[in-house]
Each structure stands twice: as C-alpha cells, then as structure tokens.
Amino acid sequence: MNFWFAVFRQAGRNLRQTWTSQLMTFLTVSLSVLIFAFFYLIYTNMIGASDRLSDDLRLIVYLEDDPGPEMQEQLRRKINNFDKTEAILFISKAEAYERFAKQLGKDSDILTDMPKDFLPASIEVVPLKSLRGYNQIKLFSEYLATLPGSEKVQYGQEWVERFYYVTRLVTIVVLLSGTLLILTATFMVAYTIRLTIMGRHEELELLKLVGATNNYIRTPFLLEGTIQGFMGSIIGLCALYILFQWISRHFAGPGLLNIFNFSFFPPMVIVCIIFGSIGLCTIGSFTSIQKFLKI
Amino acid sequence: MSRPVPTQDPVETKKLPGNTMIEMIKVSRTYVPDITALSDISFAVDTGELFFLIGRSGAGKTTLLKLICNMDTPSKGLIEVAGHNINNLKGNKLAHLRQKIGVAYQDFKLLSDRTVAENIAIAMEVSYKKASAIRLRVRDLLDQLQLADKHDTLTGDLSRGEQQRVALARSVANSPRLILVDEPTGNLDATTTERVMELLNRSNKAGATIVIATHDASIYKDGNHRVMELRNGKIHSLSRNSR
Known about the structure:
- The complex is a heterodimer of chains A (295) and B (243).
- With 295 residues, chain A is an alpha+beta fold.
- Chain A folds into two domains: 3-53 and 161-294, no CATH class; 58-154, Alpha-Beta Plaits, CATH 3.30.70.3040.
- Helices cover 72% and strands 8% of the residues of chain A.
- Chain B is of the alpha/beta class and 243 residues long.
- In chain B, 29% of the residues lie in helices and 27% in strands.
- Chain B is built from six helices and ten strands.
- Chain B has helices at 61-68, 91-98, 116-125, 131-144, 160-173, 190-205; strands at 20-31, 35-46, 50-54, 76-81, 84-85, 101-104, 178-182, 209-214, 226-231, 234-240.
- The longest helix of chain B has 16 residues, at 190-205.
- The interface between A and B is medium-sized, with 18 and 26 residues.
C-alpha cells in the first residue's frame, strides 16, 4: 500500500462519513464563487465599456469667434503646455455648419433659412489615452474653460460623471463581496474540516499512537479542501455561465448590453478563479488540521 | 533473553550497553494538584526480554506504560526507548518509532464503527504494508486468537473479552520491536488466556521486547522472567522468577 492510496482511501472515508456537512460546505463554496464571480464579471465588463467610451472621449471648447492662424497656434501651445494630447482640431463656424448638415442628412433642408455662421467655432481636444481619469478630465476641462475666447467646455460631463461613480461603486462592491466571500468560504471549509476532525477524534488519536506520520493524517484533509475548492468553483462558474447566457439571450439587441458588449471571462481568469478557490479551501483545511496536530 | 534485532526503521537504533530497549532513570509523574502516580522509577529492560510489571490497581502500571509509548510525559526524569530520549522525539521520527511499538491499551482504543479486520489492519496501514500482506496477517492473527469468524464484525458488537483480543492482535500485527500490554487477560477465561500468552511468547521468540502490566499471577509465575512490582507509584521489588 502506498502513501497516496492510503490518502485517497482516507479522504473517501471522510467524505462518506460526513457527507451532509461536506455538501453544505460545497454549496457555500459554490455560492460564494458565483456571487463573487458575478460582481467581478460586471466589474470587468464595466471596465471594458469604460475603455471603449474613453476611446471616443473628446473635450469640445466652444469659442466666441473663429480664431485666426496665429491665435490657433497660440491656443494649441497653451493646451499642450497644460497636458499632452492625441489631437487638437479647430472647427470653424462654416465647418460646424457643414458637419451639422451632414448629420441631418435628408432633413438638412431645415437649415436653408439659417445663416451659415449660426453655429459657434470650436476646438476638439482628444486627450492622451493614459490621461483619461475622471479627475484628470475634469481638471483639463476647467483649464480649457479659461482659454481666451472660450465660452463653454463640453465632454458629456453628466454621463462621464455617472459612469465614473457607478464604476467606483461596482469596484467597492467587488472588493467587499470578494473579501467577505473569500472569508466565508475559507471559514466554512475550516469549520467543516474541524467538525470532521472532532467526529473522528478517536480515530485520529489512534492513528497518532500507532505511528501515523503527520502527513498521513493531514493529507486526506487537505485533499478534501482541494476537492471542495475545485468542485465549488467549477459549479459556481458553471452557474454563472448559465446566468450569463440567459442574460445575453434575453437582453440582446439595442440597449445597455450593446454599449457594454457583455462578454464572459477569458480562460485565464477562469483558471485564476478555480486556483484561487482551491488555494483558499486548502488553506482552510490546513489551519484546522494543524491545530489538531499541535495538540 | 537479549538478542539483536535488525534495524529496518528510519529511526536508527542506537546500541546501548547491554542492548537496552527501555531505560528509565529517576522518572516521576505527578498530576495536579499533587497526585503522585510514579516516583523515582529507575530500571532497564533488555532487547528481546519478556518483562512483567505487577501491582494492585492504582499502583502506577498503566502510567508507566503510557510514559514508555509517549502517550504521557514524565514530570521528571529520563526515558529512553531504543536509545532515543522519547520525550525529545517529534514529528516523523516519533511516528516511525511508534510504528515499532505495539500497545494493547487497557481501554482497548478500538474504533467501534469499524470491523475487527479494519481495526487490526490500521497498525500496518500506517507503515504502508501491502494490502495482500495485511489481509494475510489479519487472518493469521484472528485464527491464532480464535476470532476468525469475527473478521467482518464491528468491534462495537463484540464482547469485552473479544475486544481485548482484537486490541492485542492490533498491538502485535505490525511485528513491532517493543510490545506494551496492559492487563491482557483481565476479561479472558483460562483457555483464551493461554492462547493470548502463546501469541505473546511467539512474538517474544521472534525478537520482540514485551512488557506486560498485569495483576494476574497465573501468567507470570512460570518461567524465568523479570518481574517488577509497583506499590503507590514506587518500585517495591524487582526480581527474576526462579522457575
């Protein structure tokens, strides 16, 4: 008989004898993984959406008048002095009129009676991708408002602000739920293993007396923790995938999900979640059995 | 009675003068508040010796056996088993030494929800004996102790006499170099007592050192064995049977 045969037989015996508490722990781990992964999935999708939105982000500075070439150069220098940019575009009143007419398409005839300079001239500033934090954009827009001839700065403040706060809220929820669920899963596994140890105290004492090594006693419990972590994470992730498919099917089409381009975890994240769950459950088992082995 | 025993275990046996298996020097054990179970016990048991420990109930026999197998620690004094200070051994070294010590406890320490065979096998499983060898050894021991028909019976369903024999079978199953037996015949009739003693004598002839704690004079009165009597936790006498 070799070590691993003995370990697997012992682990099987443990699982058989304490299957009710094992089942409860397994469900707790699955549920913990499901809840954590659910929030994490929302978080990663929001981050993805935020990246996509920031690709289109530009600050529009409305000017009192069309700036001449010298003024344009001066404004460009002032903007670049404050922060580096991807691009700075000057839109004259006439260009603004043409763009608007193009956007209206078939309905552009409503502009026939309007003067060609009724729209204000503007500067479109595309900030660097690395400098697109909410506070940086806000500071930048405040600076742009102080430029000579500037009337108003627009960058979809309300939308950006709301999106920023929602992202921050989801981040906090993910961090909090993650921490709490990690603790819950770890304690539940540790508690189940402790119950198993208490229920089999006589046997474990006897094993020590007949010369079982600590590894012989410890490894089956670690294996139990590993199995709990593995099975729990697999079931939790499967449940999340089913939920994801259901949401994708029922909320597909134009709407919020299109903005989000809702997608599931990449394989690497799935592997990380599974290994994280296995690691935490094994740690839970380890701490419980170590306490017994020290006695 | 001294005979060399081949060393196979990871805990290497240090050869002491006179090939000593157990050596106790001024060992005392007191329990709170101030109960003295053993006081200033000094003696040695040679390798391969059959040694009897006698005395009335409460004399300290069980405590002495518990100290030898490291189930309990002395308040004072030194205990060496196979050349090792047993109270300094920890972890794997202690485990490997324990695999070479078979103990039949007074309270049997059987797992009542396991079969007779499983209870006996446990001692061999921890040292990774082959499953086929374990099966053979278990059958052989059950035959010797007239328990062959109890192979698959849960030990919780056995009589005390049968449980005692299972505990004894487990203690000798792994062919240990040291066997400690606490009251091996307390619940047995004369015929079964004889069989139990035959089993122990066979183990002794195969090289095992055996320490038997008993107050049954019938099992130690014959033969040329050393007998140590404890009274109130102290050595009252240590002599060799002349017959």
